[in-house]
Amino acid sequence: MPEFFHDKKLYYTPIEFALKHIGGTWKMPILWRLQANILRYGELKKDIPHITHKMLASQLRELEDKQLIERTVYPVVPPKVEYKITAKGLKAIPVIEHIMKYGYELIQEAGIEYPPKI
Known about the structure:
- By secondary structure, this protein is of the alpha+beta class.
- It is built from six helices and five strands.
- It has helices spanning about 15-20, 25-35, 40-45, 55-65, 85-90, 95-110; strands at about 5, 10, 40, 70-75, 80-85.
- β4 (about 70-75) and β5 (about 80-85) form a beta hairpin.
- The mean pLDDT is about 95.
């Protein structure tokens, strides 16, 4: 595959480029939650309890920069900010579904009890 540059970064494959948009621990879970609902920052934080405030803010900014989500700020006190998935972000949902299905299959093949009994 031919390599290419984008925003001063060298990419070797389209897969690498796609993962720059949705890869990592938190971007897919954020997109997944926004596919059906417009959510506020606090709602996202509550729904993804292991993410830090710093990481959530960073990931939301990256997703917004890549135009996968849209941020709306309302001029009220206290500030109200909502996040919603864009049409471009919705295109990632089938990819996320396939990765999730593959993950479930790998978990099952490994004999891992999922979800774990508490």
